[in-house]
Design a protein that fits this description.
By secondary structure, this protein is mainly alpha-helical. Helices cover about 50% and strands about 0% of the residues. Strands 1-2 form a two-stranded antiparallel ribbon.
């Protein structure tokens, strides 16, 4: 998972969509503004409190991913996998998260929050350091988890959910520490006795927890 610090840009973008920004802060209107590929940039204020599918669509649009059959390059260090399959519909991501979360006994809202901040819901994402798919599994980690194709959404979500389950177990159910370990590795968390003093990891944990809280509020 240990993605380079330049991924912070896309994390901040997703955080703006999924609720990491102060909800009381004014958000300037962006009506008529377009992003990569001429796609409209979605005002985060307009999607606050909306269903998961709408947030996924907003995240993909803001990252410049429009045509469901086209692998587009997003912001920051995330690009598209070579010969990438079609984009995964939000309903399918939701279904896969639900299945894997039930199997590994992980709150699905936490898994969604990790996906939002890791890949922006782009199943074809590849980071500069080689992390792959929705939950940005490193090839060695994916292999160790039994994931043969990290770009297969079902395998990726299954493996990523299994991994965060192992981090929750390792850190006695402490969600911030488990999230930090997902990003920086469990050794770093153990070395520092908490969230490592890396700016990228600290921002990552903050953004994932903010997204987690937002998704949890939307769950009936």
């Amino acid at each position: 998972m240990n993605i380079g610090s330049d991924i912070l840009a896309i994390q901040q973008r997703i955080a703006a969509i999924t609720g990491a920004l102060d909800p009381a802060a004014p958000v300037p209107p962006v009506t008529g503004t377009t992003g990569p590929g001429g796609l409209p940039i979605v005002d985060p204020a307009q999607v606050a409190g909306t269903p998961f599918a709408a947030l996924v669509q907003a995240a993909l649009a803001n990252a410049g991913i429009g045509d469901p059959g086209q692998a587009a390059v997003g912001a920051g260090s995330l690009g598209a996998a070579p010969d990438a399959p079609a984009m995964v519909p939000p309903a399918e991501i939701n279904r896969l998260v639900g299945m894997s979360s039930a199997q590994w006994n992980v709150d699905p809202n936490l898994v969604k929050a990790i996906i939002a901040n890791e890949s922006g819901f782009n199943a074809n994402a590849t980071s500069d350091v080689g992390a792959q798919g929705l939950m940005q599994l490193m090839p060695a980690t994916a292999a160790g988890l039994g994931v043969s194709d990290p770009y297969d959404p079902a395998q990726n979500v299954w493996g990523g959910t299994r991994y965060i389950r192992s981090m929750l177990d390792r850190f006695d159910g402490n969600v911030p520490l488990a999230v930090a370990a997902y990003n920086a590795g469990p050794g770093a968390v153990e070395k520092y006795g908490g969230v490592p003093p890396y700016a990228q990891t600290q921002n990552y944990v903050q953004n994932v927890l903010a997204s987690y809280q937002k998704y949890s509020r939307q769950t009936p």
